[in-house]
Amino acid sequence: MDRTTTDRTIPPVSTLDSWLEAVDRSLAAEPLSYNKVDDNLGTSQDLNYLPVGVGLLVSFMKLSDVVNVLGTRLANYKKPPAVFWLFAAKEPSIDSYSEWARELRKLYGQERYTPQVWIQVGGGAMVAKELALSDVRPDALSIQGSDAGGHGIERGASLIGQLPEVNDVLNKALSEAGDGRKIPHLLASGGIVDARGALAALTLGAQGVVMGTRFLASPETIVPHPEYQRRILDARDGSQSTIRAKVFDELRGPNAWPVEYDGRALVSNSWRDLHEKGVPIETIRDGHREAVAHEDGGYGINSDRAVIWAGTGVGLVNEMKKAGDVVRETRQGIRALVADLHRTLDTGRSRL
């Protein structure tokens, strides 16, 4: 969704049903088994919902359009998605997220599966606390660090300082509230591309991780041009080869994102022209317009003007890998790292 907002080609909400139908057909042809997670779950065919999530950029969509599409789907006894991931609300964000959460949950009715509502947060512990205590009642909060690729709150920080404080603040606030609500599951987002980063996030207080940049190099991911993935694979030293800036959303016209947001992408000639050479934005837009008309779509190393969203972990993404393999290897890698740490601690040998 980040790419499409920059390209001013957000898929119409009406296409949501066709995407969900494609998922349903895929799962019917090759059902997922959950026996390793819970013996009572069986396979995806036994569920009355699709075990997938739908990301919604609430500043760029009408809630009524989403409700109409999903309402028609439910009326025709088609399976709905399990999770709605909300992001990019304009201020006041709490009110906006509350309305979306309320209407999406109400749509399903009591006799059906109640969808989970996840919200991406980049504004620190106080924002997370306000959301957790609000009518939104999020099932999960994705705490986004400033290392994340794509869009996020401009005034943010890394995960290493955010996550422990968010965890402590939420535990204290919900305990004092005394209304029985549970602390939302915390997901860590930003700079995580392998088992090492995932384990670090779990240690900091997360219950799960988000690895957007890693999946850019998966064959299942739809990218605008093959050069996009090639540039991701070739990138090194993500702390220097990526940058957060608003210019990435100015290339096709005035920035449509709420003022609180910017985005992290690979450093490009468009960014260099503005921030290193002082080239006027209209001239930069002209160069971008010419570049994206080329065969490489402006993503090639020679033109290097189209936006390639990526987080600081991009330097560790060095090969194409199926999404399922990424998940399995990350989980296995965490187990191996934990076992290694246990051995280190048990023998009293320190790596320091």
Total of helices:
13
Cα-atom radius of gyration: 21 Å
| N to C succession of SSEs | HHEHEHEHEEHEHEHHHEEHHH
Biggest sheet overview: 6 strands, parallel
Strand content: 5-15%
Percent helix, as a range, is 40-55%
Summing up helix and strand content along with how strands pair, one would put the structural category as alpha/beta
Enumerate the strands of the largest sheet in spatial order, edge to edge or round the barrel.
1-2-3-4-6-7
Write down how many β-strands occur, each being a DSSP E stretch of 2 or more residues: 9
Mean pLDDT: 90
Instruction: Categorize the overall geometry.
Output: globular
Residue windows where pLDDT falls under 50 for at least 5 positions: 1-8
Distance between the termini: 42 Å
Keywords: Flavoprotein, FMN, Oxidoreductase
InterPro entries: Aldolase_TIM, NMO
Protein name: Nitronate monooxygenase domain-containing protein
Pfam families: NMO (PF03060)
Report on this structure:
The chain has 13 helices and 9 strands. The protein has 352 residues and is an alpha/beta fold. β2 (81-87), α4 (93-108) and β3 form a beta-alpha-beta unit. The longest helix has 25 residues, at 323-347. It holds the Pfam family NMO. Keywords: Flavoprotein, FMN, Oxidoreductase.
